[in-house]
Design a protein that fits this description.
about 325 residues; Nucleotidyltransferase, domain 5; 5-stranded mixed sheet; 13 helices
Length: about 325
């Protein structure tokens, strides 16, 4: 069996997979709260409890260099080789979580997607993926006549590029708090809370008290999303307007960089929860608003991935391929 994992800043999903009829079947899986554990090894020990595997592949939210990762949204430093030795695994390969996510796309079914922009994908053209969640991940998926690997990146930490006077005011507000304002400071779960505070503190929009309380003490992104979709909190609604257009603009930039005429996929935990707003045109207004390249971007298919196990499936696929080479 292959051990596979998807480690994010908020939660970690881990599972055992074995080949079955040309596919990989999940034998069992479990979900952990990442911050409850000091590192990856603790989760592996709890999940395996001495069970033997052929090897492990783990997608992790952060840059992977020489099979090591220092996670930006967790206080973890993970060395895949050391974890394997310490926990009795033949090998453990780390890969960027967006690479794992992209590796899972080929095994998804049509019902695992919601189409945001209906267009014909150009066969053989590059694809791209952007995933707003706890942080913001990006990957480019080259397409060639042979199987190619998605490209790892830390594109979520590129400098946020404001397009309007309002976004410039937002960027200036965040610069006063964080110094450098990355795209992740705006387009992520934490970004939702950052925008909400700007809407309330700088623009003076009145929030519902319970939403403001959640932003300061609990799951701000969830509270903002629910209230914004329901239209019960003017500050939350304004937050979603700004968030979705900024998210679309960042995704459109990625589409231009990669010339992703094969399609753009939205992964992560936020887009599926905001589907009623994702399809109302606000996201696509930001996505296509690129002047002379508006027409090109309007002809790129855009889909939201709704299967929350995509990265786990991708890590399992990668682990299985590695095991066949052993």
């Amino acid at each position: 069996m292959i051990l596979a994992g998807d480690i994010g800043g908020t939660k970690a999903v881990i599972g055992l997979f074995e080949p079955h009829l040309e596919q990989l079947a999940c034998v069992r899986k479990a979900t952990y709260r990442s911050a409850d554990h000091p590192g990856l090894g603790s989760i592996i020990d709890d999940f395996l409890r001495g069970e033997s595997v052929r090897g492990a592949c783990v997608g992790i939210a952060g840059p992977v260099i020489d099979n090591r990762c220092k996670t930006p949204n967790l206080s973890w430093e993970v060395n895949g080789n050391e974890v394997a030795r310490a926990h009795g695994l033949p090998w453990l390969v780390l890969e960027n979580d967006l690479v794992a996510n992209a590796d899972g796309i080929p095994v998804l079914l049509p019902e695992d997607f919601t189409v945001i922009n209906e267009a014909d994908a150009v066969e053989g053209a590059p694809q791209a993926m952007i995933s707003p969640g706890t942080g913001l991940g990006m990957t480019i998926i080259p397409r060639t006549n042979v199987r190619s690997r998605p490209l790892p990146s830390e594109g979520g930490h590129q400098t946020f590029a404001p397009r309007t006077a309002r976004e410039r005011r937002l960027a200036a507000h965040l610069e006063g708090i964080f110094g450098h304002v990355s795209a992740e400071r705006v387009v992520s779960g934490r970004g939702l809370s950052n925008i909400f505070r700007f809407i309330v503190d700088v623009e003076g929009v009145e929030p519902r008290p319970e939403v403001a309380h959640e932003v300061e003490t609990g799951d701000g992104g969830r509270a903002i999303g629910q209230a914004g979709i329901a239209g019960t909190c003017p500050a939350a609604t304004a937050t979603l307007d700004l968030f979705l257009e900024a998210c679309g603009a960042v995704a459109g930039n990625l589409a231009l960089v990669s010339l992703a005429r094969g399609g753009v996929f939205l992964g992560g935990g936020i887009a599926p929860k905001l589907l009623p707003r994702m399809v109302d045109g606000t996201f696509m207004r930001g996505f296509t608003g690129k002047g002379r390249f508006t027409d090109l971007l309007s002809r790129i298919p855009v889909k939201v991935i709704e299967n929350p196990l995509t990265a786990l499936l991708g890590a399992a696929r990668r682990g299985h391929l590695i095991s066949r080479k052993d």
